[in-house]
Amino acid sequence: MTASEIMLALDLGTTGIKAGAFDQDLNCLGSHLVENHLRYPAPGLVEQDPAHFLNSALALARRLAAQLGRRAQNVTAIVCSGQMGGLLGVDADWNAVGHFDAILDTRSNVARSQIEPYQRAILARCGGLTTQLEKMLYWRDHYPAAYARLAKFVPLNGYLAGVLAGLSAADAYIDHTMTSVNGLLNAVTGAWEADLARDLALPLAKLPRPVASETVVGTLTPALADRLGLPRGVPILAGAGDGAATYAGSGINRQGQALDLSGTSCALGAYSDHFLPDVDEQLFVNMKSPTDPGWFVIYINHFGLTHRWFLDAFCQELIQAQGVPAAYRALDAEAAALEPGSGGVLAVPHLSGQTSPPRPYTRGAWLGFGLGYTRAHFYRSLLEAHAFEYCRAKTHLTRLSPTMQLHEVFVSGGGSRSDLWNQIKADVLGSTYRRLVESDLSTLRGDALVAARARGWDVPAGFLKFDREYPANPANTERYAALAENFQACAGGLDPLMARLFR
């Protein structure tokens, strides 16, 4: 190891493909982003082209190498991360078979009926979602010719790493962070659930070998090294799912420490030093950390889409006059003028179904409003409803493990720009919120931490930076405790009606 080592991180995300270079102190030496291409053949169907992922990642890597100049010869590791939940088939020579089947595509939902008899056992052993398993069953049943041709199913980061290292299907792998979405991969042992695969008639021969994220799966091929301007023989590490890399790159590595990923999909995840399957309530999924021995225990829902829907539906004059970012700030100012509780208005925020626990028939609702109420009441009630959902998750988490107190919550993503929402969540949870700086680099920085672990780098303690802290207001926390109970009664009471209307 020398003081000049550099790693290259490549991330194949849902809406963007990113690349970054980091030194041993986790300083970002450069990063680039290109927009991803999503094709919608029909409503509910989403297809992504493996060639676009590959070509974009290679172009970004070449651009980074040129930016590094002579320092590019100091690159000693390449780490790939990518979307979780989706899968891609490769043939014996590592050619992609068909499109990348992303988690956004709902066609594979029809396979859930085959999995349902095993659901509790899967949660107890694998601790997460079954989206990759659903997709394997779907391709077997609906694309038999492609299924016969493919030699292995691989996650997206594994596909890119395989191209970089010139792997064949015999070398295919899946990293341990994918236990949270696979349905067949045991979260504790890291091995395939062979009995379940047999019961579902999925041959183990089509499954890749499970490996830890820091595993060296190959080295950069001479042809690609010359093409990209990188040294020949650079080790290619297994990498991680993008969600796991993001949590790791946000510094979540101590018991009870939590991260609020406040984006299109919002997730509240805490680090646990032991596996915490949530078999009964199904609020949490367990995601293996790619850099530490524990797990991220994560509650997921799609709150961010609710905010943009509200802005588009009720604030067009703000958007036209000020633009979207300023419109959000103006709406926050209106809502901040109200007292906690939104004048008694309660919102159910799940406009496109509830993810945790899975209730796809749930829709949005407002209760308790009357004459004289404004959009500020409705908007603040949405912000509070999201916080109440987090409160329910936190309460359940302490039942699963009393040591999970969540005294400190880091926050990142587009929603973290709202000071009002950060403060509401801090007050409802009774936890201090701290906003991360450069949170857009968290996934790439998580990849860098994988390289640091593999290369034996001494990671500096202060590599994370924050720009604002939001301590909980004890008076508001006490007031919100009673309101959270009302919210739970409201949401639970409406559940039978929602099921009749939208199931």
Structure description:
The chain folds into 2 domains: 6-241, ATPase, nucleotide binding domain (Nucleotidyltransferase, domain 5, 2-Layer Sandwich); 250-436 and 473-503, Nucleotidyltransferase, domain 5. Helix content is 39%, strand content 21%. The protein is built from 17 helices and 20 strands. The chain has helices at 50-68, 112-115, 119-126, 131-142, 144-149, 156-165, 179-182, 194-199, 222-228, 242-249, 304-314, 316-322, 324-336, 375-400, 419-429, 442-455, 474-502; strands at 6-12, 16-23, 28-35, 75-82, 87-90, 96-101, 152-154, 173-175, 209-211, 216-219, 235-241, 258-262, 266-272, 284-288, 295-301, 346-348, 365-367, 408-412, 432-436, 466-470. Helix 14 packs across helix 15 and helix 15 crosses helix 17 (474-502). The chain is globular.
